[in-house]
Amino acid sequence: MLKLNSKQISFLRAAGHALNPVVMIGNKGLSEEVLKEIDVSLKAHELIKIKVLSDQRETRAQILQQICEQLGATAVQHIGKQLMVYRRAEKPHITLP
């Protein structure tokens, strides 16, 4: 998992502000199929938003932690039901400050 400083996190939050969620996690939680879809999206975009339909904040925080651990991604933001995740691609599209 890549460690980001506060300046890089702020940059990614600003870059992701206009993004729409590309993956939705329903009431069944984080399945292998959902993880594969998140992995494919991260390879294509580097920075993605994920919408979690669960009303429990603790559940959403656990899902974010699982995604980051299993896919080697970095949590950028968790606001309400929206999660923002970043993982540097082999050929980066986003240049961090």
What does this entry look like structurally?
The chain is built from 3 helices and 4 strands; from the N terminus they run αβαβαββ. The radius of gyration is 12 Å and the shape is globular. With 97 residues, it is of the alpha+beta class. A 4-stranded mixed β-sheet has the order 1-2-4-3, sandwiched between helices. The longest helix has 15 residues, at 57-71. The chain has helices at 6-16, 32-45, 57-71, and strands at residues 21-25, 47-52, 74-79, 82-86.
Please outline the helices and strands:
Layout: H1 6-16, E1 21-25, H2 32-45, E2 47-52, H3 57-71, E3 74-79, E4 82-86
Parallel strand pairs: 1-2
Antiparallel strand pairs: 2-4, 3-4
Q: How would you summarize what this structure contains?
A:
This protein has 97 residues and is of the alpha+beta class.
Keyphrases for this structure?
41% helix; globular; 97 residues
Structural class: alpha+beta
Number of strands: 4
The CATH class is Alpha Beta
Net shape: globular
Low-confidence segments, ≥5 residues, pLDDT <50?
none
The CATH topology turns out to be: Translation Initiation Factor IF3
CATH architecture: 2-Layer Sandwich
- The number of distinct helices, counting runs of at least 4 residues, comes to 3
Q: Which bin fits the share of residues in helices?
A: 40-55%
The CATH superfamily label reads YhbY-like
